[in-house]
Design a protein that fits this description.
Blueprint: H1 3-9, H2 14-39, H3 53-69, H4 78-103, H5 108-125, H6 134-153
Helix pairs in contact: 2-3, 2-4, 2-6, 3-4, 4-5, 5-6
């Protein structure tokens, strides 16, 4: 795709998009791990059929870890790569819900930022965007950066 086509359609080559999604997925996963650690959610708390918020967060973290490695053996696929980033953001949002419930009202902004990042990642991955819409990807990237900053402010991340 030429630079002119990219400017007109708002997309980028699949290999470039893979890096965008992989960077966001890694950030969200790292945020999820740190938030789980802060909230006292052990990785072995994952449940096949979750019966608690802790089991749900640990299970989502385990699935997100698997999805980070999935793209390595395949050709770039913006839709699939964006779904990996979405899954990691969703895991971080579940962990944030548990952490916020334990930390009280001081964690409200970190929870809100985590939910916003998850929603933005879902928008970038879903519908007609399928991971290719640069505007939605930029919004998701900014939401992820904000979620990381909020998690740090809340003391969930170093």
């Amino acid at each position: 795709m030429s630079g002119r086509e990219e400017a007109v359609t708002g997309t980028a080559p699949a290999a470039a998009l893979r890096k965008v999604h992989a960077d966001r997925a890694r950030s969200a996963y790292d945020r999820a791990v740190a938030t789980c650690r802060h909230a006292g959610i052990p990785q072995d708390a994952a449940q096949l059929v979750p019966t608690s918020p802790v089991g749900r967060a640990a299970g989502a973290l385990r699935l997100a870890a698997g999805s980070l490695d999935a793209p390595a053996g395949s050709d770039p696929d913006p839709a699939a790569d964006a779904r990996c980033a979405r899954n990691a953001a969703a895991a971080a949002a579940l962990a944030a819900q548990v952490a916020a419930s334990r930390d009280g009202t001081g964690a409200t902004s970190a929870l809100r930022a985590a939910l916003t990042a998850s929603q933005a990642a879902a928008a970038a991955a879903g519908g007609t965007a399928q991971g290719r819409n640069m505007s939605l990807n930029a919004i998701a990237d900014e939401a992820e950066r904000s979620a990381v900053a909020a998690a740090r402010t809340a003391g969930w991340m170093a």
